[in-house]
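Archive record
______________

***
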Amino acid sequence: MSIRLLLVDDNILFRKGLTALLSQQSDLTVVDALGSGKEATQVASNLEPDVVIMDIRLAGSSGLDIAAQIKRRQPQVKVLMLTSSRNEEYVRAALRLGIDGYILKDASLEELLLAIRSVARGKKYLSPDVSGHVVESFLHPEQSSGKASQLDILTNRERGILQLIAEGRTNRSAAEFLCVSPKTVEKHRASLMQKLGLRNVTEMTLVAMEMGLIERPSSFSRLMGSSNLDTA
């Protein structure tokens, strides 16, 4: 019986290449490949895949947040994170949310296939490099990054808003993307800034980069030249 896969990755070349590779396997079927996490929850509900393969960092949204929504709606669906981030806080957060697997993008095709088939059978799968980092952090917690550990005190919504604002969105555009009111975004934004002790957008961007929520936003140069809050 074929394993039905839903792919979610904002890199179109990676997404198409992965679709082509996985489609060559006789026991795998790619039912859809999405470039945005925003539609992933609804598409997963409509298509009922066996495994959702998604990046933890998606343009404009948190892969963890989307994965949590899918697991709440469809607990039977397996979610496999395929990402370049080795951040152990991400791994811990993913495991707490009930994510079924976590594998790095530099893994071999053979390892990815093993991970897919393992989670489809109901087993957990952690990339060896990732599991090594997690075990090391448990054995030597004093060596863990202070900034990375702050990710744990944020809610999924706060992480998503931090990512959106750090990517250069205003409160209004973030609210439109999340389909909530600007006041809701303002409330969560104020909360996360208080939790992290942040004062402005520049500091939010720097912390988001340290946490691995974003890489290098297009607005970074502009932000470095101004420390004013943009709440329009």
Notes: The CA atoms of residues 140 and 211 lie 19 Å apart. The beta strands are 3-8, 28-34, 51-54, 57-58, 61-62, 78-83, 101-104, 125-126. The first helix runs from residue 12 to 23. The chain has two domains: 3-139, 146-224.
